[in-house]
Description:
D-Maltodextrin-Binding Protein, domain 2; 6-stranded mixed beta sheet; 47% helix; 18% strand; TRAP_DctP_sf; DctP_fam; carbohydrate binding; TRAP transporter substrate-binding protein; TRAP_DctP
Amino acid sequence: xxxxxxxxxxxxxxxxxxxxxxxxxxxxATEIKAAFNQSDKHxxxxxxxxxxxxxNKETDGRYKLNIFPNELLGDQRAALELVQNGAIQMAVVAxxxxxxxxxxxxxxxxPYVYTGSAHQEKVFTSGVLDNLxxxxxxxxxxxxxxxxxxxxxxxxxxxxxxxxxDMKGKxxxxxxxxxxxKMLSCMGGTGVPMSQGEVYTAVQQGVLDGAENNEITYADxxxxxxxPYFSATRHLMVPxxxxxxxxFLSTMSKEDQATFKKLAKESTVSEFALxxxxxxxxKKTAMDKGATFxxxxxxxxxxxxxxxxxxxxKTPAQKDLFEKVAALQ
Length: 329
Ligand code: GCU
C-alpha cells in the first residue's frame, strides 16, 4: 500500500517537475497547472481549455494554463490537497470532496435536489452560490465556479435495477464522502467509496457489482465493458467544482485576479452547452459496444431518499441555501 502511494507520488513529482522546467524554458508566462481526472475529450476539459485560452489572451500572455488529464496529478482527493498547499494552482473536483471540508456543500449535491439541467444551470449562474464558494478561502482554496456533470444513474454487471429491492446486496462504488455512502443506502444498496481511477478494475474483479455515474463518464472511461446495464435512476446531479489555490490567487494582481475569476464563471455556460452536446454521442458509443440502457420509474427511489434530504439539511446555512436552490426551480 505504502509502496504504491510512494510510487504514485514520485510519478506526480516527475510530471510536475518536468512541466515546471519545460515552462520556465519555453516562456515567461506563469504556468497554471490544473488537475483533471478524466480524458481530454471530456466537456469539462474542453471548457477549461477554452477558459485558459481566453485567460492567456486577456492577460496579454501573462498566464498559461496547462491541464493534466486522466488523474496524472493524482485522484481528486490528492489533487485538492495539492491545490490547498499551493503545489498546483487549479483542479476540477466533485462536490463531495469539498463537502468533506464544509457540510453546507452537501445541499447542492443531494439526491433529487434539481429538477433538471436548466434548473441546475440557473443555480450555478445566478450568484446564489457566490458566498459559499468564497467561504472556502480559510481552507487554502477557493471555488471559482461549478460545472455540470449531468445526472448520475446506476450501472451494474449481470442485470439492470428497477427498484430499491433490486439494489439489495449490491456493492456499488461511490465518491469519497459520507453523504455518498448514505445516498447509496437510501437507494437500497451498499456504497463503497473509492477514487474514479480504480472503478473499472474493481468491477472487473468482482469487488464491486457496479457503480453510478453520468453517461459521459460511463462512456469516456469505458466502464460499459465491465458493467453493461445502465439503469436511468438519475438520482444525483452532483456539481463538479473548479477550485484554485488561495496562495496562487494572492500572487496575482487585482486586475488579473478579477479577469481570472470572471472567465472561470463564464466558462460554466460553455461547459453546460458542451455537456448537452455530448450526451447522446456518449450513449451511442456505449450502446454500440453492447451496453443496455433501461428507463426506470424514479418515484420509489425519490421516496426512499426523501428522509436523507431531511437528514442532510440541519444547519441554518444549509436551510437557507436549500430554500434559495428550490426557489430557482
Ligand atoms: C463524475 C464527475 C467527476 C467525478 C466522477 C466520480 O464523472 O464529473 O468529477 O470524479 O464522477 O464519480 O468520481
